[in-house]
Q: What sequence folds into this?
């Protein structure tokens, strides 16, 4: 008798004791999941799964594969509440949307119905919400807050700046020491303006000094200067101030601003926090530019999967494009099938690791606009059959590992920001400027809709306010990672172009490991 047949026999016997008849495909599926475990662990898992199946209160005493899959998931999450899970993927179209209420000074859920076919007024609406988000954050900064702390002399307030609006400038002929928050735009070709909810004003940048970051048209900028004869002559210009996530979350009240089935934010879950600390070896693996139509890439992916089969991570996140050439959908479907065949022999990965597929704008069946829907099931159906833990999701998407919040976006974002900046920085590291741009702007798309097309109704899916623990970008330029304001910004780089380098993230310690596949003889 083969080993898998012996395990199947043990499974059938255990379920028979409980009064259940388990179908052959269900017993085979469970046997494959636990085959790589030791004898004692197998028996424990069979007992746990059987107990969880019994708690499902089946209408008939016949156990199918779907019941086994649910029982395994429940067994993995033992000790957690119904809405808590070790790992979850949240697609872009399920991300909750909020609007800032100026009267109540807090964010409230936007309960309006949304559609990809947005009405014309939606464009101004989402830009307005971006402005209000940055306005309320800037007003609270110590540079502008005019509240007097208890016991502080009123003269200490003399150094505070006054944050102006455009209407204040337009009502006078001149004003010194102006501080203005506005959208950098070109209302006429070759002439920059700063625009807010009250109007727009032309600006003169000829003698301006620039702060750290990649300042682009479409960014909201904080400008310091003097207003003369209808023009704001700027001395200094940069981004609005940053803010720690712990401070931002307080303005969302008890709402779950991240997404998922839980009504409360899992960031504060004690169960998940304890689990996160205990699982020091848990990791997430990120790769970008996974060209499944390239023989060398497939060979290296096979090498990577075999290596991680010994020490399975929580999830392997593969980002597109999944085809280097613009091939027809039948060829791409065949490539995903080959990927499934490759993974089907990795028994430990099949039992313990989720495979997450994040498409790029170059993958089939979607336009060049974000958020991008998942890869259609018709293309990945064979992959799912061979590797049931496959998750196809949107671009961008959100990941929840225990209490950790992670944003994943496959876009040439570093390249776009460098190409569109009005002042390329001459000092400092590129990753510092890139991270500062995203963190201070609070969005993955701090560019004009022409340079970075987005669905207006789903701008919330691109929001990174409050800041997550990790922002993962898939840009083909050189990989990097940097931490700013307790948020790690990481660019994975291109898997094939970087000689098969990838990133491994350890949530327990919030560390990133630069990894690379060795050459095989």
A:
């Amino acid at each position: 008798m083969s080993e898998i047949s012996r395990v199947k026999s043990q499974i059938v016997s255990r379920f028979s004791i409980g009064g259940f008849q388990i179908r052959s495909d269900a017993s085979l599926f469970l046997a494959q999941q636990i085959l790589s475990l030791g004898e004692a662990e197998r028996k424990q898992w069979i007992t746990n799964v059987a107990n969880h199946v019994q708690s499902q209160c089946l209408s008939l005493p016949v156990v199918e594969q779907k019941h086994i899959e649910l029982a395994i998931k429940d067994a993995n999450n033992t000790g957690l509440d119904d809405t808590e899970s070790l790992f979850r993927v949240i697609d872009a179209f399920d991300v909750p949307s909020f609007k800032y209420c100026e009267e109540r000074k807090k964010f409230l859920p936007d309960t309006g119905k949304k559609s990809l076919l947005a009405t014309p007024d939606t464009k101004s609406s989402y830009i307005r919400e971006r402005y209000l988000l940055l306005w309320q954050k800037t007003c609270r900064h110590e540079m502008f807050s005019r509240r007097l702390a208890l016991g502080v002399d009123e003269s200490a307030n003399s150094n505070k700046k006054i944050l102006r609006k455009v209407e204040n400038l337009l009502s006078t002929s001149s004003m010194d020491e102006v501080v203005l928050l506005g959208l950098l735009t070109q209302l006429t070709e070759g002439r920059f303006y700063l625009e807010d909810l009250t109007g727009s004003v032309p600006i003169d940048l000829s003698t301006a000094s620039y702060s750290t970051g990649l300042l682009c048209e479409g960014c909201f900028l904080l400008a310091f200067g003097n207003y003369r004869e209808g023009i704001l002559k700027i001395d200094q210009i940069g981004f609005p101030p940053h803010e720690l996530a712990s401070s931002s979350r307080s303005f969302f009240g008890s709402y779950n601003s991240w997404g998922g089935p839980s009504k409360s934010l899992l960031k504060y879950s004690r169960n998940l926090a304890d689990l996160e600390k205990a699982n020091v070896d848990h990791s997430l693996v990120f790769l970008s530019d996974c060209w499944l139509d390239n023989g060398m890439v497939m060979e290296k992916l096979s090498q990577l999967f075999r290596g991680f089969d010994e020490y399975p991570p929580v999830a392997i996140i593969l980002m597109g494009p999944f085809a280097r050439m613009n091939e027809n959908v039948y060829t791409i479907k065949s490539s995903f099938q080959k990927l499934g065949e490759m993974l089907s022999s990795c028994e430990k990965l099949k039992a313990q690791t989720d495979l997450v597929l994040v498409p790029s704008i170059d993958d089939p069946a979607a336009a060049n606009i974000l958020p991008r829907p998942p890869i259609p099931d018709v293309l990945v159906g064979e992959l799912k059959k061979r590797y049931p833990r496959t998750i196809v999701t949107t671009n961008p998407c959100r990941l929840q590992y225990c209490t950790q919040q992670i944003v994943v976006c496959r876009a040439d974002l570093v390249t776009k920001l460098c190409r569109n900046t009005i002042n390329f920085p001459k000092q400092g590291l590129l990753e510092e400027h890139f991270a500062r741009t995203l963190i201070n702007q609070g969005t993955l798309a701090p560019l004009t809709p022409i340079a970075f097309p987005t669905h207006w109704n789903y701008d919330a899916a691109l929001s990174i306010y409050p800041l997550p623990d990790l922002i993962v970008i898939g840009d083909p330029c050189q990989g990097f990672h940097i931490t700013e304001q307790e948020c790690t910004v990481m660019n994975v780089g291109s898997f094939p172009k970087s000689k098969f380098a990838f990133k491994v993230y350890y949530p327990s310690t919030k560390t990133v490991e630069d990894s690379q596949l060795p050459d095989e003889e």
Observations:
- The chain has 14 helices and 23 strands.
- The mean pLDDT is 90.
